[in-house]
From TrEMBL:
It comes from Escallonia herrerae. The keyword Transport applies. Coiled coil: none annotated. This is Exocyst complex component. Pfam families: EXOC6_Sec15_N, Sec15_C. Component of the exocyst complex involved in the docking of exocytic vesicles with fusion sites on the plasma membrane during regulated or polarized secretion. Involved in polarized cell growth and organ morphogenesis. During cytokinesis, involved in cell plate initiation, cell plate maturation and formation of new primary cell wall. Belongs to the SEC15 family.
């Protein structure tokens, strides 16, 4: 090793004799070879310079220098190599012995392991067979379970138990399809499973389609049943209110024999649950009413199982929406009055079904979708009602539809639907309904009045009395009269009462259940219109055109008195039907609405009586106005008048109420007083004597006595009022007979004793009392009075009154 190192140090020294460039190239080449670098650049340089020999020379020189180094290394390690070879030779014998030993062991192992290997091969073969048999058994078991599931699915399909069939198919697909050892069976399943699902979907869609067709009929019947139950409930409420009104009436009349009872109310709801279907679906509807949702829920569940839940929801909503749109169609061939119940019942049943589906369908339809359908239905129903109401010309038709719509509202409000828009449409046509009702009543009243014969009504049976008198509370005594009974009115009165009562009941029926609780004021307003505009106008027309005799006028006046009592009943009846306490209704009572007709009837009676009286008063022309002696008896005309009035009174008091009779008598007596004053004032009497005035004084006393004699019929105060009807004639006679006629000019005396006199009439009549021959004042002298003072006083009175005039 030392020699090699020496050689590496000596080599460059030996090379110093060469060319410096060659030495450098040789040095670089040696360094590149030692470092394992690429010699390509040296080769290219040698060939480029055309001196490849130099490169070869340098390479041979490098090789020789390395050979010497190798030789040195080999010499340095030779001894160690010889020692290693000796060691290997010593090991060779051991290897041979080991080889022979291994050979013997192998022979022994082969002889011993041969039977064992054959047994092992038999075991492996048996184990493989066992594994194959086990695999076959597991495959058979899998196939058996698969076949059982297929058989069960077929059984469920045959029994239309589609949900269980789908569960079987899903189990087959999830658990056995990938594990099926039979490729034929797997291909069959892969082909049949989609077919089965599509078959189930078709069958369930067909059942659902049949249900959609059936539910329309069921909805109509269901709607009619629900509305019918609402009507029955309303009728029970009406009956209860009727009993309450009767109890209030008994309480008002201080009757203590009141009977109280508790009544059980049946549940009107349709909310019972039906039975479970054979698939385990809860019906969710009132099965007792034929309201079955099982096909719908089965279809929904099947589509959920198939993974088509959202698609089925949309399909269901669209189909129901189309059905609802179809339900909105109003036939132009059938009058709406005949078809409105079916129309509204169909819609009611539709939304009763949807409410049930919403609450029990498990999300099949949302509340928002139901509300959208309801908003559409309300809009359409309002449009139909607006159109149909605008065409109607009969109040009863409008009332029938309104009642059914209000029942529809009551029915659907129970299910949470808002019906305010429908009620608003009904309220909007309130005025039109009442106008039609007024028109109908106007025709009925006109027909009733035109048939009136102005004869007192005969009643032969108690039920007739109850129907024509008691039912309108127009009786004048509490006990039942003897029969036959002659009523103090004609048949027109109960006929008109029935028309008005029917109007009140129809008006209340229209206003009831329309969303407005306090509607008495509205009913009262239209009742006032009926009485004041229709009935009062018709009576005025009848009085002005059909009454031609005193008896007719007397019956008419009696009718008006009875109608006055009936009007009180009408307003009480309206208050009771409207649920208003009677005390509140009586508190707001107004004046008699038929006062024009009543006044006209009394004026007509008074006018006819005045015409009769005028005929008797013509006899006043037979009075001796220039009598020389005071008459011993009354004048002829007053006898005739009193006989006529007494005869009239005996007949009238059987028909006319006392107050009406008093007003008529007062009017007639006032007319007689005017006729007496008119006779003194008229041109036919040029002058008269004081004796004639004394005779008139006797006549007036007879008339006053007649008025006072009516005290048993009327009160004493009212008899005095009758007597005041003769005030003008009495005060004039008193003035002419007075010894101090100038007291007429005294305001205090005039207000107390002569307030009914007109000073112009006093002047004219007083001038007729002045006799140019002074015979008049001679008569005063014959009675012991001084003529000159009275003449002077009378002249002074006439002069003063002329000055005032």
């Amino acid at each position: 090793m030392q020699s090699s190192k020496t050689r590496r140090k000596v080599a460059p020294v030996a090379a110093e004799n060469g060319d410096s460039a060659d030495k450098l190239d040789q040095l670089l080449l040696s360094a590149a070879v030692c470092n394992g670098e690429d010699l390509g650049p040296f080769v290219r340089k040698a060939f480029a310079s055309g001196k490849p020999e130099t490169l070869l020379h340098h390479l041979r020189h490098f090789s020789r220098s390395k050979e010497s180094e190798i030789e040195d290394v080999c010499k340095a390690h030779y001894q160690d190599f010889i020692m290693a070879v000796d060691d290997l030779r010593s090991l060779l014998s051991d290897v041979d012995s080991l080889k022979s030993s291994l050979s013997n062991s192998n022979s022994q192992l082969q002889s011993v392991a041969g039977p064992l290997l054959s047994s092992l091969d038999s075991f492996v073969e048996a184990r493989n067979k066992c594994q194959n048999i086990t695999l076959a058994i597991e495959s058979l078991r899998t196939c058996i379970r698969l076949i059982e599931l297929c058989s069960r699915a077929n059984m469920h399909l045959s029994g239309n138990n589609f949900y269980m069939a789908l569960k079987c198919v899903d189990s087959i697909e999830r658990q056995y399809l990938d594990k099926t050892p039979s490729s034929t069976l797997r291909r069959m399943l892969e082909k049949q499973i989609p077919t089965i699902r599509s078959h189930i979907e078709r069958r369930i869609n067909k059942d659902f389609g049949d249900w959609l067709v059936e539910i329309r009929i069921v909805s109509r019947n269901l709607g009619q049943l629900a509305i019918g139950q609402a009507s029955a409930s309303r009728q029970r409420e009406e009956d209860m209110r009727m009993k309450q009104r009767q109890a209030e009436e008994q309480s008002r009349l201080s009757l203590r024999d009141c009977i109280y009872a508790l009544e059980d109310e049946d549940d009107d709801g349709l909310g019972g649950l039906g039975d479970e279907g054979k698939d385990g679906y809860v019906n969710g509807g009132a099965g007792m009413f034929g309201f079955d949702l099982t096909p719908l829920y089965r279809a929904y569940h099947i589509h959920q199982t198939l993974g088509f839940e959202d698609r089925f929801k949309q399909y269901y909503f669209e189909n129901r929406k189309l059905q609802l749109t179809s339900d909105f169609q109003v036939s132009s061939m059938t009058p709406f009055l005949e078809s409105h119940q079916t129309f509204f019942a169909q819609i009611a049943g539709f939304f009763i079904v949807e409410d049930r589906v919403l609450r029990t369908g498990g999300g099949l339809i949302s509340k928002m979708e139901v509300e959208n359908l309801w908003d559409t239905a309300v809009s359409k129903m309002c449009s139909v009602l607006e159109d149909q109401f605008s065409r109607m010309r009969t109040a009863n038709h409008l009332l029938l539809i309104k009642d059914y719509v209000s029942l529809l509202g009551v029915t659907l409000r129970r299910y949470g639907y808002s019906v305010d828009a429908l009620l608003d449409v009904l309220s909007k046509h309130r005025d039109k309904y009442h106008e039609l009702l007024l028109s109908d009543c106007r025709k009925q009243i006109s027909e009733a009045l035109s048939a009136d014969k102005f004869e007192q009504m005969w009643m032969n049976k108690e039920y007739e009395y109850s129907m024509n008198v008691l039912s309108f509370q127009i009786q004048t005594f509490d006990s039942i009269p003897a029969f036959p009974y002659i009523a103090p009115f004609s048949a027109t009165v109960p006929d008109c009462c029935r028309i008005v009562r029917s109007f009140v009941e129809d008006s209340v029926s229209f206003m009831s259940y329309g969303g407005q609780l306090d509607f008495y004021d509205v009913v009262k307003k239209y009742l006032d219109r009926l009485l004041t505009e229709v009935l009062d106008g018709a009576l005025l027309k009848l009085i002005g055109s059909s009454i031609h005799g005193v008896n007719q006028a007397m019956v008419m006046a009696a009718n008006m008195a009875v109608l006055e009592r009936a009007c009180d009943f009408f307003f009480r009846h309206a208050a009771q039907l409207s649920g208003i306490p009677l005390r509140m209704a009586e508190r707001g009572r107004r004046q008699f609405p038929l006062n024009k007709a009543r006044d006209a009837a009394e004026e007509m009676l008074s006018g006819l009586l005045k015409q009769k009286v005028d005929g008797f008063m013509l006899l006043i022309e037979n009075v001796n106005w220039m009598a020389d002696e005071p008459p011993q008896n009354e004048n002829e005309y007053v006898n005739e008048v009193i006989i006529f009035l007494e005869t009239l009174l005996s007949t009238a008091q059987q028909i006319l109420p006392v107050q009406v009779l008093k007003r008529v008598l007062q009017d007639v007596l006032s007319h007689i007083s005017e006729m007496i004053v008119g006779a003194l004032l008229g041109e036919s009497v040029k002058r008269f004597s004081l004796n004639a005035i004394m005779g008139i004084d006797v006549d007036i006393r007879l008339l006053e006595t007649f008025a006072e004699n009516q005290a048993p019929l009327v009160s004493e105060a009212e008899a005095n009022q009758l007597k005041t009807a003769l005030a003008e004639a009495r005060q004039l006679i008193n003035l002419l007979l007075s010894n101090h006629p100038e007291n007429f000019l005294n305001p205090v005396i005039r207000e107390r004793s002569y307030n009914a006199l007109d000073y112009r009439k006093v002047v004219t009549i007083s001038e007729k009392l002045r006799d140019p021959s002074d015979r008049l004042f001679g008569t005063f002298g014959s009675r012991g009075y001084k003529a000159n003072p009275k003449k002077k006083s009378l002249d002074s009175l006439i002069k003063r009154l002329r000055d005032v005039n």
